[in-house]
Amino acid sequence: MSSLSRQLLVSCLVLVFAQRALAVGWDSNDFIITGAPNFPDRIGIFDHDFTFKGYLDQNFLGVQGMDFDAAGNLVAQASLTSTAEVRVYSPGGTRIGGFTSSDPLLQFTGDIKVAPNGNFALGTFVSGIRVYTPQGTFVRQYGDGDSRGIEYVPGDRLWSGGDGTIVRIFDADSGAQAGSFAANGQTMSYSMQYSPLENTVLVVDADRDLGGVFERDLTGALLREFNVPRPQVTCYSATRGADGEVFGTTGNFDIDVIDWHADATVARTIDVYPVNIAAVRILWAGSVPEPGATTVLIIGVWMLGLTRPTRSPEVGKRGRDWLCLDPIEVRRVFGSATGIVVLQAAGWRHPNRHGRSCARLTGWPRVCGRHPRTPVADTTSRCRSCSPAWSSAR
Questions:
Q1: Neighbours of 97 (CB within 10 A)
Q2: Chain centroid to CA 192: how far?
Q3: Segment 76-79 long-range contacts (CB within 8 Å, at least 24 positions apart)
Q4: How far is CA 348 from CA 22, 251, 359, 370, in A?
Q5: Residue 14 DSSP code
Q6: What CATH class does 25-284 carry?
Q7: Closest CA to 342 of 285, 296, 292
Q8: Which ranges constitute the DSSP H helices of the chain?
C-alpha cells in the first residue's frame, strides 16, 4: 500500500470514529426533548437531572411525535412539509431506519405510536390514524378527521382524539370503532401517552388558557388534572418519569419543562434549552412501548435472577436484595422493553447507580449473596444450596 493510500485510509477512519464519537445516545434515566427555535427541528438528550448531554438530531424540520419500539429504538416523525418522514434511532444515537412519504394525507401529523405488531401509527390532523410498516408501506387507516393525539392501551384498543372533547376508541385488530368518551374538562386531545405502572393515559390539551395534562383511566374517567403554573402558557406534551412524576413541556422560554408530583402538585419548573429555543415534545427513556404485559413482567423479574448482562462496571453487580441491570441491556436480553417496568417496579438496580436511592425488592424473587446466580429461598437470603428451607419456601 502506498504512503498516499495509507494516509487516505487513516483519514477515513478518523472521520468514521469522529462521527461515532459525536453520536449522542441515551440511557434509562434520560429525557428526550424536541426543540423549536421557530419550528421544531432538533432532538436533545438530557440526563435525569436535565443536564444537557447533546443532540440526537439537529436537522429534522417539523419533528413532532416520538415513541419507542420493542427493541428500545426511538421512532420520531416530522410532517411540516409535503414530504413526511419517520426516523428510527438506536439507543447509541445512530440513525438506523425510517422512511419518507409523499402521501398528502400525512402532512401535519401529531403523535406517532409503535403498534404491538411493530407497525407505525401516525395521528393526522385531517385523515384519521394512518398505519405504515417500518419500511413505509401503507397498511390501514383508523377513522377519519382530526386524530392528532393517539395511543395504544391494553385490550387491543387504540385511542384517537383531536380538536374537541370526543375521544374515539378503535379495536386495534379489526379497525372498527369500539366506543368513545367525552374528555370532560378538555378542549382538545393534542397528544397522549400510556403509563403502564399506573394503567392510565396522560392526555395533553394544548389550549393556551384551559389546557394542561389530564390523567384518565382506561374508561376515560378523569383522575387528575396537571395544571400549568403560569397563565396563558401552552402545554404540548407529557411523559411519566421515575417515582410516578409527570413532566410536561410548554411554549414558554422560561419554563421549558414542568415537573409535577404524582398527585398533580407542581414540584418545580426547569429551563433546559437556551432562551431562544422552546421545548415541544418530551419522552422519558424509561417509558415502555408495550402496554399490559403483567405476566411477562412477573416472568421477567424471576428470569433476571438468572441473567447477567454487563453494560458498565456496575451493571451486573448484585447485593442481597438488588441486581443492577441497565434497561437497554434488559431490552436486548428479552427482545422487548418490558424490562424497564421490571426495573422500575422491582428496583433491580444498584442503589447508587443513578445518583439516587432505588427501591429495594419487596415481595419479588431475590438473589443469594453467596451464589449470585441463584434466587433466594427465604428471608435469610439463602438459596437452595445454603438453606434446607428451600423446598418448603418454593
A1: 15
A2: 12
A3: 76/34, 76/43, 76/112, 77/109, 77/112, 77/120, 77/122, 78/40, 79/106, 79/107, 79/108, 79/109, 79/122
A4: 31, 37, 8, 18
A5: H
A6: mainly beta
A7: 296
A8: 3-22, 294-304, 327-334, 339-346, 390-393
Q: In which residue are the cell numbers 432562551 written?
A: 275
**Contact of 120 with 112, CB cutoff 8 Å:** yes
> Shortest CA distance to 273 belongs to which of 33, 27, 22?
33
Closest Cα to residue 77, out of 34, 115, 118? Answer: 34
Average pLDDT rounded to a whole number, residues 147-162? 97
d(CA 188, CA 210): 10
Confidence of residue 7 (pLDDT cuts 50, 70, 90): low
Residue 16 to residue 232: CA distance in whole angstroms: 47
Instruction: Report the alpha-carbon distance of residue 134 to residue 298 in Å, rounded.
Output: 30
Sequence spans of domains, the chain: 25-284, 293-385
Question: pTM value?
Answer: 0.70
Mean of per-residue pLDDT scores for the chain: 77
- Whether the CB-CB separation of 246 and 229 falls below 8 Å is answered with no
pLDDT of amino acid 40 = 92
- Distance separating alpha carbons of residues 87 and 99, to the nearest angstrom: 7
Q: Tell me the one-letter amino acid at 246.
A: V
Strand bridging mode 138-142 / 129-132? antiparallel
